[in-house]
Amino acid sequence: MPQGVSVDGGKIRHIREMRACLSMADAARMVGISVPGLWKIETNGRTLIGTLRRLADVLGVHPSELMTEPSDYALTTATSRRLVSPTGPTAPMREPATR
């Protein structure tokens, strides 16, 4: 099951409105979520790590800037990756290929 991360909703809203000059509708569309979904992030302060990465990209900041505990970003990122074996269970593990 995907893990949620704690984010600073007020900071997200401030960056969205003041630095990125984006409406909630425009930002939500660019992130690929609904307007109510973005409202929940800004209000409740929780989101999935993938959504956090996309939101940070749209706002032009590092994801850790939006988190309430930025030091958790590395831990969350490391535990959210799945390692795959190229040839079976005895082969060395490697990161999945990115597209």
Mean pLDDT: 80
Number of helices: 6
Choose one word for the global shape. globular
Largest sheet: 2 strands, antiparallel
| Tally of distinct domains | 1
The CATH homologous superfamily name equals lambda repressor-like DNA-binding domains
Structure description:
This protein is mainly alpha-helical. The protein has one domain (4-80): Orthogonal Bundle (434 Repressor (Amino-terminal Domain)), CATH 1.10.260. It is 54% helix and 6% strand. The chain contains 6 helices and 2 strands. The chain has helices spanning 9-19, 24-31, 35-44, 49-59, 63-66, 72-80; strands at residues 4-6, 46-48. Strands 1-2 form a two-stranded antiparallel ribbon. The protein is globular, with a radius of gyration of 16 Å. Residues 79-93 have low confidence and may be disordered.
Output the keywords.
99 residues, mainly alpha, 434 Repressor (Amino-terminal Domain), two-stranded antiparallel sheet, 6 helices, 6% strand, globular
